[in-house]
Structure formats: C-alpha cells, structure tokens
Amino acid sequence: MVSTHTLFEWLVGLHIATGTVGLIVVWIPIAGKKGGALHRRAGTLFVQSMIATGFTAIAISLTTLSDPTGTHPHLAAHTIFADPQAITNIFGWMMLYLATLTINLAWQGWLQHAQWS
User: Fold this and answer.
1) Which of 36, 48, 56, 97 is the most buried (most CB within 10 A)?
2) What's the pLDDT at 4?
3) pLDDT of residue 81
4) Within 10 Å of residue 116's Cβ, how many Cβ atoms?
5) How far is CA 40 from CA 29, 63, 105, in A?
6) What is the mean predicted confidence (pLDDT) over 15-44?
7) What pLDDT shows up at residue 117?
8) Confidence of residue 35 (pLDDT cuts 50, 70, 90)
C-alpha cells in the first residue's frame, strides 16, 4: 500500500505539472489575436489545466487533512507548524478553500464563454 506521504508527493508533482502548463499557456491568449483559433485552443487548455490543478489541490488537501504530520514530516521541528492542527488549518483547510475557488472560477469562466459562442 502507498503511504500518505508518497501519495502526497505524487499529487504535488501532478499539481506542479498542471499548474505549470496553465502558467505557460495563459500568455498565448493574452498576447495573441482575440478570437483566433490559437487564442481559443490555448484558452481551452488554460481552463482545463486550472481545473486539473484545482482537483489535484483538493486531493492534496484531503491527504493533509487525513494525515497532517505524515504529509508534512519536515515541519516536525518547526516552532509553529509542529502542531498538527496548524498544519491542518493552513495546508489542509486553506488549500481546500483555494482549490474550490480555483475550480469554481475556471468553470464559471468556461460556462460564461460558452454562452457567448
């Protein structure tokens, strides 16, 4: 069976990969001709990558909520974050909130754009 920490690390890697795609691709529709084929394809890829990034963040936050010290063992000696409740609050609940917000904003933008088309 995979440990919580290993699963957490895999999810963080996937989160970084999907977020990187979004951060790179966002500049294409910003700099490109509005409404062009490249603009639309890059915009679609951006929204998809942000939704994927948000879902990986939800998974990361759930692993943190289930095992705060197992997912963040490097914080065991920290003066503030050695407390599992602090890890849960900041890296669990706050990330869950931000992930939900990211997915919601990307999805609402996608739906709004679909109404324009």
Assistant:
1) 56
2) 93
3) 84
4) 5
5) 7, 35, 18
6) 92
7) 63
8) confident
Residue pair 103/56 in contact (Cβ under 8 Å)? The answer is no
Tell the residue number behind the tokens 């997915």, with chain if given.
103
Give me the amino acid identity at 116.
W
C-beta of residue 4 within 8 angstroms of C-beta of residue 70: yes
* Cβ–Cβ under 8 Å, residues 87 and 49: no
Name the residue ranges covered by the structural domains of the chain. Answer: 4-73+88-116
Query: Which residues have a Cβ under 8 Å from the Cβ of 70 and sit 6 or more positions away?
Result: 3, 4, 5, 8
Mean model confidence pLDDT for the chain: 92
DSSP string, the chain: ---HHHHHHHHHHHHHHHHHHHHHHTHHHHHS-TTSHHHHHHHHHHHHHHHHHHHHHHHHHHHHHH-HHHH-GGGTT-TTTTSHHHHIIIIIIHHHHHHHHHHHHHHHHHHHHHHH-
